Amino acid sequence: MPFLRKVGQLTISIGQRQCRRYNSTKKYADIAKDVYDVVIVGGGVSGLTLAAALKPMNLKVALVEGMSLASTGSWDPSFDVYSNRVSSITPASKKYLEQIGVWNHIDEMRVEEYEDMRVWDGVSGARIHFDAFDLSSDGTGGAMAYMVENLNLQHALLQHLSEPADVPVTILDNTKVSEIKTGEELDDVDLSKWPTLTLTSGDSLTARLLVGADGVNSPVRAYAGIDSTGWDYNQHGVVASLKLEWDDRQRIAWQRFLPTGPIALLPLPDGNASLVWSTTPEHAAHLKSLTPKAVCTLVNAAFRLGMVDLKYLMRLTDEDEIKREFEWRDELLPVEAEGSAFPVRIVELAEKSLASFPLRMRHCDTYVGPRIALVGDAAHTTHPLAGQGLNLGQGDVACLARVLEQAIAGGADIGEEFVLQKYWAERYPVNHVMLGVIDKIQKIYCTDCTPVVKLRSFGLEIVQNLDVVKRMIMKQATGI
Ligand SMILES: Cc1cc2nc3c(=O)[nH]c(=O)nc-3n(C[C@H](O)[C@H](O)[C@H](O)COP(=O)(O)OP(=O)(O)OC[C@H]3O[C@@H](n4cnc5c(N)ncnc54)[C@H](O)[C@@H]3O)c2cc1C
Questions:
Q1: Ligand 1: which of 172, 177, 377, 435 to mutate, judged by most atoms within 8 Å of the beta carbon?
Q2: Residue numbers of the chain with a pLDDT score lower than 50
Q3: Tell me, what's the pLDDT at 112?
C-alpha cells in the first residue's frame, strides 16, 4: 500500500487512510495545487538561474517575484543604448550558464569581454596590470570577464524558462511575499513543518524547500531567523552608461583607487562603457545634482588628476567652470598616457542613466535551516570593487542545484537540513574568503594616510612583478 503520494512531480508522505480520503475530495486537489517541491522567492539573477538549473529535474517549482517581469521578458533594447546595470561575469559563471542552456539566449552583440585590467593607486600612482595573454599558463590568453547587462541575463533566463518542459516552472511576478509561516495543519496531511507563504495576490503556497533569492533584505532569511552580520561602507556605488571619445578596441577594464572609493570604467561594445564609481554618499548626491556633461568631465578628472585637484573640482557645481578647471590641468598631462595609463575620455553620459546604490558587506552565519536555503545577495552582499557579487550567487546556485540533484538521486527529502548542510558547507568558506579579501582591499585603499599608502604601494609593486602571484589572483577572480 502506498505511503507516498504523487502530486504532479511532488511526492507528499501520507498514510494510506489519508491517501484514500484526499483522493476523493476536492480539498486534496486544492492542497496539491498549492504545494511545491521548491518555492524560490526572488526573480533577480540568482533566483532565475536557480529556477533554470532545477528545470530539468522535473520538480514542481514556483518562483515569486515582487516586481513585474513583463518588460524584462520582452526586452528589446535599442542598438546603441546600454542599461546602467551591467555586471562582469566570470568565465566560470559563463560556463555554468552555458551548461544549463541559458547562455545561448544571451544577446552576444551586447556583450564585451576584456582580457586586460589596469588598476592603480590614485594617491601614489602604483600600478598593477593583469593581461590574460601574459598570465595564462599556456600563453593563449582568454577573457578575464564578460560585461553583460543584468537585463540581458534576466531576459535570457526568462527565455530559457519559457521553453517547453515536462514540468514548467510557475512564475508568479508582480506579487510579493507578505507572510511566511509554518505549522499549517492541512487537515490530516502533515505539512506542518513546511513553510507556507502568503502572497500579496492572495495566493498561498506551501514548499518542501523554500529558497530565499530575495536580496539583501531577504524576507525568507528573516522568517528563518538567520542572522546576517556585516557593516555599511558609507559609500554609494554610482553607475552610469557612458560613451567614449573613440571605440577603444583594446578592451581594457580600468580601476583607480581614490581615497573616497574606487572608480571603474568597464568596456561595452561599440565605444560604450559602464561606470561604477564607489564614493561617499555626499559625492554621490553631488554627482546626481550635476548636468550629465559636468559628470562626464568629473569622471575624466577622476581617472587623470591628482587628489588635490580632484577634490577641488568635486566642490564645483557649474558645468562650464568644471570644464575649464579640468581642461587646463588635463593639457599638462603627457599625451602618450592616453589609452595606456588612462582610459579614453568620456564624451557622453546616457540620459537618466546615473543612479546610485548604498554599498555594504553582509554575510549570514548559515545559509540553511529546516526546509530553507539562501542564495546570492540574500546570503552575502559585497562591495562591487572586484565585480564578484553576482558571480558568487551563481556559484551558490550551481552548488545548491548539484546538492539537490544528488539528494533526489539518493531518494532523500530535498528539504531536510542534513541535505542542505552540504550546500552551506561547500559555499560558506569560498564566499567567506572572497568577502574577506574584498573587504580588506576596500579598507586598505580607503585612506590617504602616508604609511598605509607606502605599504600598499610597495605590496602592489611586488605583486606587479610576480607573475605567479598575479596568476593566482586571476585564477581566484575568474573562478577557473
Ligand atoms: C553598483 C554595483 C555594481 C555591481 N557590479 C557587479 C559586477 O560587476 N559583477 C558582479 O558579479 N556583481 C556585481 N554587483 C553585485 C550584483 O549586482 C548582486 O550581487 C546581484 O545582482 C544579486 O542578485 P540576487 O538575485 O542575489 O539579488 P537581487 O538582484 O537583489 O534580487 C532579489 C529579488 O528579490 C525580489 N524580492 C525581494 N523581496 C521580495 C518579496 N518580499 N517578495 C517577492 N520578491 C521579493 C526583488 O524584487 C529582487 O528582484 C554589483 C552591485 C552594485 C550595487
A1: 377
A2: 1-28
A3: 96
Residue 224, number of CB atoms within 10 A of its CB: 23
How far is the centre of ligand 1, averaged over its atoms, from the C-alpha of 196 (Å)?
A: 24
Q: Where are the domains of the chain?
A: 4-74+152-230+361-439, 86-149+233-357+443-478
- What residues have CB less than 8 Å from 223, skipping those under 6 apart? 180, 181, 195, 372
Q: Among 71, 6, 43, 4, which Cα is nearest to 169's?
A: 43
CATH number of 4-74+152-230+361-439: 3.50.50.60
Q: What is the CATH number that goes with domain 86-149+233-357+443-478?
A: 3.30.9.10
Which grid coordinates are listed for 68? 513585474
Indicate whether residue 479 lines ligand 1 (CB < 6 A). no
Going from the Cα of 47 to the center of ligand 1, the distance in angstroms, rounded, reads 10
- d(C-alpha 480, C-alpha 478), whole Å: 6
Q: Ligand 1 centroid to 377 CA: how many Å?
A: 6
pLDDT of residue 185: 58
Burial of residue 468, with CB atoms counted within 10 A of its CB: 0-12 exposed, 13-18 middle, 19 or more buried: exposed
SS3 label, residue 195 = coil
- What's the CA gap between 237 and 259, in Å, rounded? 14
Largest CA distance in the chain: 87
Q: State the pLDDT at residue 338.
A: 66
pLDDT given at position 45: 98
